[in-house]
TrEMBL record:
Family according to the record: Belongs to the protein N5-glutamine methyltransferase family. PrmC subfamily.
Top class in the EC scheme: transferase
Binding site for substrate: N184, P185, P186, Y187
Organism encoding this protein: Undibacterium umbellatum
UniProt protein name: Release factor glutamine methyltransferase
EC number: 2.1.1.297
UniProt key word Lipoprotein: no
Catalytic activity: L-glutaminyl-[peptide chain release factor] + S-adenosyl-L-methionine = N(5)-methyl-L-glutaminyl-[peptide chain release factor] + S-adenosyl-L-homocysteine + H(+)
Record HAMAP family: RF_methyltr_PrmC
PROSITE patterns assigned: N6_MTASE (PS00092)
Keyword Chloroplast attributed: no
One Gene Ontology term of the molecular function aspect: peptide chain release factor N(5)-glutamine methyltransferase activity
Residues reported to bind S-adenosyl-L-methionine: G117, T118, G119, S120, G121, D140, W169, N184
GO biological process: methylation
Amino acid sequence: MLDWLQPGNTLAACENSSPLERIDTRLLLMHGLGMTRIQLITQSELVLDAEQLAIVQELFSRRIKGEPIAYILQERDFFGLNFHVTPAVLIPRPDTELLVELALQYAPANSRLLDMGTGSGAIAVAIAHQRPDLQVAALDVSPTALAVARENARRHLPADKVEFFCSNWYTALADKKFQTIVSNPPYIVENDAHLQQGDLRFEPVDALTDHADGLSAYRQIIGEAHLHLLADGWILLEHGYDQAEAVRDLLVQASFTEVQSWRDLAGIERVSGGKLQIQT
């Protein structure tokens, strides 16, 4: 038993004595006890019974051991929507909202858009939710991740609004073509120390790193893009804080034009992209 959680504790005592950040404490109490924030306040003197105490003990123990709050709650907000998340998918992050914003800006009306390595489906679902005129497709090599993505699509979109493919990058797409391709692929270099720190310790390693130099996914996505991207179509790629120049170079080598990078709210070059120039 956690020594600060004892029989006879009130909600207020649990919240005030918790070693966790206050926001995490409140979220765990709300989740475990099925209460709203208002109920936590108005029922602050409620004494937890044995069953409630056991539930709270287990949730707090998991968080103290470092498990991400998103996996414990099985949800995370992204682009104004609430997404179901499990350890089979990366936790959607605010940085990635820049990729969605750019996709909404560059995707032409009534066109087709592809999200590669969709994971939870956050990018594809957010785009489809904002732009019902688009025909959105999403792929992932993990059937387990795709199950999560499909659930999130059902949660926020009309039936069959997003077409899903179980595919190792372009493999299962046959001759399908798109006006816009977006992706947040694995980009952490193998054996990077960050993989053993914080939330990353709990996230699917194959969605974080390419087990190489961090650029192999970009080489494949960019190198084969001309087979699935229509003329003058845009490709938009999220990447690591120090990879913008390398990704731009790959785009230039593959005959993309208007190659550029965009900065996130922290001022870091977070997304790079370009327009496909078809050689004649």
